[in-house]
Amino acid sequence: MAKKGSVFICQSCAYRSPKWLGRCPECGEWSTFLEEARPQAQPGSGAGALGRRRAEAAEVTLLGEVAEEGVSRFPSGLELVDRVLGGGIVDSASTLLAGEPGIGKSTLLLQIGRSLAKAGAPVLYATAEESPRQLRLRAERLGGGGVDLMVAGETKLEPLLAAVEASRPRVLLVDSVQALRSADLDGPPGSVGQVRHCADRLTELCRERRIALFLVGHVTKEGAIAGPKSLEHLVDTVLTFEGEGAGEYRVLRAQKNRFGPTGEVAMFEMRDTGLAEVLDPSRVLLALRRDHRPGSSVLASLHGARPLLVEVQALVHETSFPSPRRMAVGLDANRVTLLVAVLERFGELSLAGHDLFLNVVGGLAIKEPAADLAVAAAVLSAARERALPAGAAFFGEVGLLGEIRPVARTEARLREVAALGFDRAFVPRLEKSRPPEGLALVEVEDLADLGRRLL
């Protein structure tokens, strides 16, 4: 049983239990319960106190009579970050920046802080994972060690809140919320109770003082944001920073935004001097492509609401093992296996005695089914050792019966294809579609039709 005034909480889903359990009955995870102290209730705030006094009725009004209030924004100093946020940083808004270790979250946060401080805005950087000395070394490596940026190296919540009250910054950067610990709870830093409590206190203070808050969050090995799900509901904006750790490109996207759209994405290039904004990502990703080599196709993908052209490469090699290998980087491995089976059945292609390797150039992760047609074209080209037509782009979903299905945002994809100088696009059969000037559409019905038109 838990001690008096404490409770056992599952670190995966925040399920509460009065005693320790080996397996969580809510999420099914094993050995995830930790004992944490209950926050002390304020005098007169219990259920009995509520029952002894009459609650005041909440104000009710018609939606059309609610007073309009404009959103106050200011630039972050990074054009692409402002675009993802919906036009800039919102006063008193809270933003959660999540990503894998080493992806560049702290670097991006430091660059935002430097840009704001250089513009004259008071910024407080609360570093709970690094010491202020380590943060200065990082800033010097990025070429801006002398910027007037306030720093607080603190892992305890209460002294940090006092420092915010004393310095009154316009922007508060916290790296990271999983490293903070409050004296009100007995749980270790990063536990469900600590993360939820610290985030709640920080957002409450920043909302009262009209301070823009940025929280850095960790992700689990499954790719989900660590901590309770209520953390994502608590903040106004959730940004994810994605990309291969060894690759040079990063993608910033908004999963949630109460003050703007969630469709915008931004691409950055990791350099020795920090993250550089990539204003024309399609042209950069295709700069080194050799279109005369077999196994290379161009995919018109969609990242959020932004079309992006990327290169898909395929390598088909005769195997020396009893079971051929199927490896994919940047693509869903299960979908690749499905696509290979459909190609063998309906594409008149035999891959039983060959290894297949697939790669999306630039370290990007493509999850949409619109990549099927480009992957199939690259595999056909590699298997038959014949290059695809120059100036051709591909997008479309492949069904289990070999048919090519339409995908979303066709017009936006075609505009991006035409803008980069491509003269033809292999697409599913479309209705009422007007291609941009200079771009020819090649409508494909199924994989057999694709093979006849390509090779």
Q: Segments where pLDDT lies below 50 for 5+ residues?
A: none
Main-sheet strand order equals 8-7-9-10-6-11-12-13-14
Instruction: Tell me roughly what share of residues is in helical segments.
Output: 25-40%
The number of E-state strands comes to 23
Shape: globular
Derived structural class: alpha/beta
Number of helices: 12
Explain what this protein looks like in three dimensions.
It is globular, with a radius of gyration of 26 Å. Helices cover 27% and strands 26% of the residues. The protein has a nine-stranded mixed sheet, sandwiched between helices. The chain has a four-stranded mixed sheet with strand order 15-16-18-17. The protein starts with 5 loop residues before the first strand and ends with a helix. The protein is built from twelve helices and 23 strands. Helix 10 crosses helix 12 (447-454). A hairpin with a 5-residue loop joins strand 20 (397-398) and strand 21 (404-405). With 455 residues, it is of the alpha/beta class.
What distinguishing features does this structure have?
alpha/beta; about 450 residues; nine-stranded mixed sheet; 12 helices; four-stranded mixed sheet; 23 strands
Could you give a short description of this structure?
Helices cover 27% and strands 26% of the residues.
